[in-house]
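User: structure tokens for this one?
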Amino acid sequence: MRKTLLEIARDPKHLGAEIGFFSVLHTWNQKLLLHPHVHCVVPAGGPSFDHSHWISSHHTFFLPVKVLGRVFRGKFVAALQRAFQDGQLDFHGSLQPLALPKTFSSWLRTLFRKDWVVYSKRPFGGPQLVLQYLGRYTHRVAVSSHRLVSFADSKVTFRWRDSAHHNEQKLLTLSLDEFLRRFLLHVLPKGSCASGISASWPIAGVPRPCHSVFSCSVQHHNHKPGRKLP
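Assistant:
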């Protein structure tokens, strides 16, 4: 998504500016199931290519979401293809047939038959509220201590919000094994980062223009399961 945003924003047909933003990776939903997605917070515009003035986005939208979806789909599928060719993908269980090159290529083609959706909107409570909301997630694990209700008879009960029913608070009870399985789905591989900042213009402390800067601010491999993060 980082490359997609930078590329489309540079296109004069859409914005024609160098943008910067920060992103936060979430891999879970309220029930601790795998739901990988990235939140990106982007100023509504960016400096011109010569850094002489600010270019504001169109008043109705920042960047066209359909274009974002198509470009991101292409980049994502191309990355999957490279990872397969480099032997970086492992297939287990029902996915084992995908280890065959022809089967994998056929499966990749199906990804282009669907529209990929990028959800973009104005901050519903203002920029400050957005920063506060995402700021709470940069140093959190999949389930925080205050959501844990009980542990009894080898079962864990925790609270979750049902977004389909007005964020109603509900309780979910899982066996200990299932709770740990879901929790460990969200321990990122060693060296992976959960949040970062991307930019394409000079930033403080850097003497020349930075074309595609990405700095990690949270490395999950340093965090042990069950450890409360600062």
